[in-house]
Design goal:
CATH topology of the largest domain: Rossmann fold
CATH superfamily of the largest domain: Glycogen Phosphorylase B
CATH architecture of the largest domain: 3-Layer(aba) Sandwich
Number of strands: 13
Structural class: alpha/beta
Helix content: 40-55%
CATH class of the largest domain: Alpha Beta
Length: 387
């Protein structure tokens, strides 16, 4: 490639070279939006972009590597403030990092409060250099937080003020338009999985069959249903359940396991940052949620050949084709979910067929090699506007 001759316009040079400086803000705790944002940053850095994470804590899966930078947001506590003003501290830090490292754009995950902070940072940078921001909607920022009367106006405003908006599923895009009536285009860019990192085991360990559930143990995840499924499954097939993650529903789930007499057949693993090591040895992934805007855990399992038995909600039907690469049942229908698990674990040929199809779906539709270029093109499109 010829060297860029636009000496007075360094941003144009970087665009021609397809290398960008991107600031990413997310919730760094265990949860889908933070995981997607972190994995996106790692993939962008691997492709030669410079990525700056701006959060209050190191994202759980971040680690370190070339072209990856982390900038902590510190919030001062004063007696005057009953609640520390994180939104303002984040905006200030965004502007500071953007100035120091000449960021091309900000990409914020989860609308509240990140979009508002990005908007303030953009306004602070006016007259210095242009700093557009993209908001990626992940689900509960729209269906729960944003729909709350207290946050509805500010959520709608933050979406409308974004230079670009993406959604992780068509279902979430439609819900956003329905709930908020925004005029912006919302680009659907699905969640993704590194198919080279998440892959089936050459040979699974012998012994009893292994079920797995991965979540933040919130009420919407219906983690207790996993225990009921295990109890019913064990009447037909020896099985063990591994529960990865943590949250408010973990304690009740541990007590329920004792009540059901299955505590010796359940392992609560806590938060895990090496899911790609855990999944390949599993057989079935349980996802009995009341709502999933996409179902990242199901996708990661599918890439490892782990068959999802999930619920027919939100964006899951966009990921799982019922009876082909997994199963979808009604929310709360533990009997139907259990029957699917038993069927899979007792019929080796059926299991092999659906497990192979699950991996094929991940490879054909959701690998990073397919999805990350969509983000890159969208970045360039946003940067090309009024450049």
């Amino acid at each position: 490639m010829q060297p860029c001759q636009t000496a007075l316009h360094p941003r144009a040079c970087r665009l021609n070279l397809n290398k960008m400086r991107v600031g990413i803000t997310c919730y760094p705790t265990y949860g889908g939006s933070g995981i997607v944002a972190t994995e996106l940053g790692l993939e962008l850095a691997h492709r030669g972009h410079e990525v700056h994470f701006i959060t209050y804590a190191n994202p759980i899966r971040l680690g370190s590597g070339p072209r990856i930078h982390y900038h902590e947001v510190e919030v001062s506590s004063y007696p005057l403030f009953q609640y520390p003003p994180y939104c303002l501290a984040l905006a200030s830090r965004m502007a500071e990092v953007a100035t120091t490292y000449r960021l091309d754009l900000l990409h914020v995950h989860y609308a509240i409060p990140h979009s508002i902070s990005a908007l303030l940072a953009r306004q602070m940078m006016e007259g210095v250099h242009r700093l557009p921001f993209i908001t990626t909607l992940h689900g509960t920022d729209i269906t729960l937080v944003g729909a709350d009367r207290s946050y509805f106006p500010i959520t709608k405003f933050s979406i409308e003020q974004s230079d670009g908006v993406t959604s992780i599923s068509e279902d979430l895009r439609e819900k956003t338009l329905e709930v908020f009536g925004v005029k912006n285009e919302i680009r659907v860019i699905n969640n993704f999985v590194n198919c080279g990192l998440y892959k089936p085991a050459e040979q699974r360990s012998e012994g009893e069959k292994r079920l797995v559930h991965i979540s933040n143990f919130r009420q919407v995840k219906r983690v207790n249903d996993c225990l009921y499924v295990l109890a019913q499954t064990r009447r037909e097939v020896p099985a063990h359940l591994y529960m990865a993650g943590d949250g408010p529903e973990r304690g009740p789930a541990e007590r329920l396991a004792v009540e059901l007499g299955i505590e010796s057949h359940v392992t609560f693993l806590g938060k895990q940052d090496r899911i790609h090591k855990l999944l390949p040895d599993m057989h079935v992934l349980l996802l009995p949620s009341e709502m999933e805007s996409f179902g990242l855990a199901a996708l990661e399992g599918m890439a490892c050949g782990v068959v999802p038995v999930a619920t027919r909600v939100g964006g899951l039907p966009e990921l799982v084709t019922d009876g082909v690469d997994g199963y979808l049942e009604a929310v709360g229908d533990v009997d139907a979910q259990s029957a699917r698990v038993v069927e899979l674990l007792r019929n080796e040929e059926l299991y092999r067929q659906i497990s192979t199809a699950a991996r094929a779906t991940a490879e054909a539709r959701f690998c990073t090699t397919l999805i990350i270029p969509q983000y890159e093109r969208y970045y360039e499109e946003i940067l090309g506007r009024r450049a």
